[in-house]
Amino acid sequence: MVTLWRASTARMRWRSPTASLVRRRSKVNTCMRASAVPRYMKELVEHLTGDITNAENTNEIDPYTLAARYHHHSVMLHPFSDGNGRMSRIILNVLLLKYAGHLSLFGSDNQDKDDYLAVVRRGGKVFHDEDMEVEFQKQTSHRGFARYVLFKSKRSLESMWGWAKAGKEKGQRNVQVTQEPVNV
Fold first, then answer.
1. Where is each Fido domain found (predicted)?
2. Please, which residues have CB within 8 angstroms of residue 55's CB and are 6 or more apart in sequence?
């Protein structure tokens, strides 16, 4: 994962000015100073490396919390001039695919996109309150987003299960339905 992060950001440059996020002509969030971004990103990658190493060594992992934490921190740091949301969703889905075995998709319509952004925005207030005051592993700004990811993942898995069952019932070849969906 860390190798993917480094490879995907190798050509990207940290943003230079102070950034503000604007949605529908209203200011949503002011991002941290651009001069602080490289240090925060270095720390974020170090924490991610440590969390992945610890999870793989102990075989104990909550993939939804892990993915939500690093998505949320990446969004809040807003390190690039463009593509921050896409990069954050890639981080989220790479972690989910590796540790939960599926992807979680957002923004299928305007309402879904608004719901996603509202959850991220609520967490952003906590993120800025906790910044530099709360130890990284004890921060809670990602928790609401983790619940949202779990909810969206459950709906996605239920849809996939329905498609698989429908394909099997229609007699489509190469469709194997082997177990009931897991309740989350």
1. 1-139
2. 61, 66, 99
* CB proximity list for 130: less than 8 A, separation 6 or greater: 139, 140, 141
Name the H helices within 59-142. 63-77, 84-100, 110-130
For residue 153, the number of C-alpha atoms closer than 13 Å in the C-beta half-sphere is 25
Phi-psi region of 26 (alpha: psi -120 to 50; beta: other; left: phi over 0): beta
Report if residue 69 sits inside a domain: yes
Which CATH number goes with the domain that contains 64?
A: 1.10.3290.10
- Decide if 183 is inside a domain: no
Q: Catalytic: 78? A: yes
Tokens of 48: 């991610």
Instruction: Give the least confident one: 9-13, 43-47, 66-70, 158-162.
Output: 9-13
Summarize pLDDT for 19-59 with one digit per residue, the tens. Answer: 555 555 555 556 778 888 899 899 999 999 999 999 999 99
Binding residues: 82-89
Q: Which two tokens stand for residue 179?
A: 């177990």
Quote the pLDDT of residue 115: 92
The single residue of 71, 72, 73, 78 carrying the catalytic annotation is 78
Alpha-carbon distance of 75 to 94, in angstroms, equals 15
134-163 pLDDT tens trace: 888 898 889 999 999 999 999 888 888 887
